[in-house]
Amino acid sequence: MKKTLLIFACFLLAFIAWAFPYIDELRDQGLTFETAYGYFFGGPDHPFNPNDAVPQLDYSKESSWASLPSIDDEADLTPAGEEGIDQLNSKVDVFFVHPTGYLKGHTWTDPLEEESATKENTQWMMANQASAYNGCCSIYAPHYRQASIYSYFGTDELRDEVHAFVYQDVKKSFEYFIKNFSNGRPFIIASHSQGTHHSIRLLAEEIDGTDLYPRMVGAYIIGGTISKDRMNEMSEISICDGATQLGCLVHWDTYNVNYLNREMPTYKNNICVNPITWKNEGAISNLADAKGAVYVSGEFALDFTGDDGPKGESFGPLEAPLKQYVQAQCKNGLLFVTDQTGTRFQAFGGSKGNYHGLDYALFYMDIRENAMLKVKTYLDNISQ
User: Which of 84, 117, 168, 231 has the fewest CB atoms within 10 Å, i.e. the most exposed one?
Assistant: First the structure.
């Protein structure tokens, strides 16, 4: 029963991720469940009001961070056979903005309860995503008043209003990171999904064309779609087109290869960098070049109803990498990968070929080793 619920919930999330670009089209066809404030499952029964949100976190407090070098947390986990860097003495930092873990429709933003399924979901993200960077860097990951998943399925105006409010937390935590933690060190910006929506704005407004840009080793802004038009607005940050290219951005949205030749025009203007070849072009990668997928640790609380009470989930050591596991190809703005039907990863895939939940897992070691390579390249360059 538990496995069945997990598969259904992943199916639901994947459908949501697929449907988001087509909201207007679906609405015109009468295929959405529209309420006064949103689509799909209703969401909060009241309009968004910033005054209803809990106060912004104080980022001078350790408890306001999901990961810090000074504390033992899930971002310290490593795959079997791998070792993490001494984060207290690292020469480079990662600022990681986590994806959506608040799946409730009670409020438009996370109420930041001390013990909750949402907080456990954030720990899941630290274990299975942020930890990919502990081979090269110290990891700083703020808690923030993330938008509820329901914010994605209302009007564009509603979504933008909620996300603009939430972004202020990301900006504030980054400013605190730069002023109080960074000490002038180089850094990487990394994210997934909702975190990517906030991070691309952070890059554009706080890093690109500023004194901070020369310190940016690179950006892993993964999942959630980024358009070429958005990148064209950048004055210095470009799309990566090589494994050792510095100061650039990588991004991909993962799909089942069986959907390679289907028409999905909404994505054609998106950027895609292949996380195996690190090229932003369409050649399929060689299986021998895939560094390794890593299966997830612990369970993500995919519960859209009821209270947000903790599930008692814990996160143990990550499994050994599955080397030479997938091939990947960028085409029409999407990254198409080996079909995961019948594998353990299938539960994190979903309808319409969308593998959004596998954006990190299938390429965990590729991300890990590339971040290490970029850091080495950056440090070698500044030592010359």
Answer: 168
Q: What share of the chain is helix, strand, coil (3-state, %, to 5)?
A: 40, 15, 45
What is the DSSP-derived secondary structure letter of residue 146? Answer: P
Structural contact between residues 195 and 98, judged by C-beta atoms closer than 8 angstroms: yes
- At 281 the pLDDT is 83
Continuous H helices in the chain: 2-19, 23-28, 117-128, 156-176, 194-202, 228-232, 364-383
Q: Within 13 A of 92's CA, how many CA atoms are on the CB side? A: 27
Would you state the pLDDT for residue 351? 66
Q: Where are the domains of the chain?
A: 2-383
* CA atoms of 357 and 346, how far apart (whole Å): 10
Does residue 311 contact residue 120 with C-beta atoms inside 8 Å? yes
Looking at the DSSP assignment, which residues form a beta bridge with residue 334?
331
262 three-state secondary structure: coil
DSSP 266-325: GGTTB----TTT--SS-PPPPGGG---B-PPPS------SS----------PBPPPBTT-
d(CA 315, CA 248): 32
Residues 108, 145 contacting (CB under 8 angstroms): no
Give Cα separations from 231 to 237, 272, 282 (angstroms): 8, 12, 19
Each residue's pLDDT tens digit, 22-46: 343 333 333 333 333 333 455 788 8
Q: What is the pTM of this model?
A: 0.90
Please state, as a whole number, how many other Cβ atoms lie within 10 Å of the Cβ of residue 243: 15
Per-residue pLDDT reduced to its tens digit, 135-175 = 999 999 999 999 999 998 888 899 999 999 999 999 999 99
